[in-house]
């Protein structure tokens, strides 16, 4: 099965019909190569929007890189900075594995299929010991799902279901808020009701929220990178120029970081907001062999 570039462009512009979205999902189901092709197209499209898309209607969908597609490296930084998750195994008759992130803490969960979940404060993830790529979330979690076309991954929360193949997204579903919210960074996810009816197909850089019964559905542009950085404090940016990385650091720390030279060579870099900006810039300098200047507010 093949799809033309015009259909991909319509998808990026949020102009696809439901029938065309079904065609794209079938295309993604066929192979990981197809999924990578769409991710690469999304990256190039978003880079164009950021660096010259001026008045396009989607220019605010991704302020930096919708191509955070390769956020896989974030696990390294999180593993080093966050405590390992509590005991996961419950002893109930259903043989469920339960992971909790108590109030005021976060937990990293490595699932049996290689997917990774970062649970935010006051959250719980439950899945069967005999893993079937079906999990239940209470609270908020950031998911980096391994691609497997033969076994889609699904997250149940507040009576709704988020179904994915291989993608990166954030899901917020605290019972006290009585509202589900999911934000897509890369790939494609489908929001479904309890009966399996599709309520909405998300594009990268979109956020959708609704009530547990699927009503009051609200869709908006969302800066997935900022959400992940602000919520979890750790981010990995793949294949970015030094100018782009400096822009990210400026946003994260409220300073001005400038590279003394930038030959355009792409760099993949991870950092944590918990680390001082001087330390982060020093690591970036060591990695790239380039020199940087840091100017804090009030300093020349």
Topology:
Blueprint: H1 5-12, H2 18-30, H3 32-50, H4 74-81, E1 96-101, E2 107-110, E3 116-119, E4 123-128, E5 134-144, E6 153-157, E7 160-164, E8 168-173, E9 180-186, E10 189-192, E11 198-202, E12 206-210, E13 218-221, H5 224-232, E14 234-240, H6 242-253, E15 256-259, E16 267-272, H7 277-288, E17 292-295
Parallel strand pairs: 5-6
Antiparallel strand pairs: 1-4, 2-3, 3-5, 4-5, 5-8, 6-7, 7-10, 8-9, 9-12, 10-11, 12-13, 14-16, 15-17
Q: How far apart are the termini? A: 58 Å
Overall SS class: alpha+beta
Report the total helices: 7
- Residues in helices, as a percent range: 25-40%
- Quote the average pLDDT: 78
Estimate the global geometry from the Cα principal axes: globular
Which band does the percent of strand residues land in?
Answer: 25-35%
- What does the oligomeric state look like here? single chain
SSE topology string: HHHHEEEEEEEEEEEEEHEHEEHE
Q: Which fold does the CATH topology of the largest domain refer to? A: Jelly Rolls
Low-confidence stretches: 47-81, 84-93
What is the total tally of β strands? 17
Radius of gyration: 20 Å
What is the number of independent domains?
Answer: 3
Main sheet overview:
13 strands, mixed
Q: Give the C-level CATH assignment of the largest domain.
A: Mainly Beta
CATH architecture of the largest domain: Sandwich
């Amino acid at each position: 099965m093949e799809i033309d570039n015009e259909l991909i462009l319509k998808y990026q512009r949020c102009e696809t019909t439901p029938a065309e979205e079904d065609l794209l999902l079938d295309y993604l189901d066929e192979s990981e190569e197809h999924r990578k092709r769409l991710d690469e197209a999304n990256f190039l499209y978003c880079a164009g929007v950021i660096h010259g898309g001026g008045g396009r209607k989607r220019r605010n969908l991704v302020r930096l890189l919708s191509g955070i597609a390769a956020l896989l490296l974030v696990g390294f930084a999180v593993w080093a900075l966050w405590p390992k998750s509590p005991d996961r195994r419950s002893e109930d008759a259903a043989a469920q594995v339960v992971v909790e992130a108590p109030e005021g803490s976060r937990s990293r969960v490595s699932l049996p299929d290689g997917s990774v979940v970062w649970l935010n404060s006051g959250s719980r993830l439950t899945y069967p010991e005999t893993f079937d790529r079906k999990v239940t979330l209470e609270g908020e979690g950031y998911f980096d799902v391994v691609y497997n076309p033969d076994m889609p991954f699904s997250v149940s929360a507040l009576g709704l279901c988020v179904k994915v193949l291989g993608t990166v997204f954030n899901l917020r579903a605290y019972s006290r808020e009585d509202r589900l919210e999911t934000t897509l960074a890369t790939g494609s996810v489908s929001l479904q009701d309890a009966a399996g009816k599709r309520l909405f197909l998300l594009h990268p850089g979109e956020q959708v929220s609704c009530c547990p019964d699927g009503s009051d559905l609200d869709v908006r542009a969302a800066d997935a990178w900022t959400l992940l950085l602000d919520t979890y404090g750790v981010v990995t940016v793949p294949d970015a120029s030094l100018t782009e990385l400096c822009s990210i650091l400026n946003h994260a720390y409220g300073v001005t970081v400038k590279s003394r030279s930038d030959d355009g060579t792409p760099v993949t870099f991870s950092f944590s907001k918990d680390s001082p900006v001087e330390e982060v810039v020093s690591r970036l300098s060591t990695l790239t062999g380039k020199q940087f200047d840091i100017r804090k507010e009030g300093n020349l």
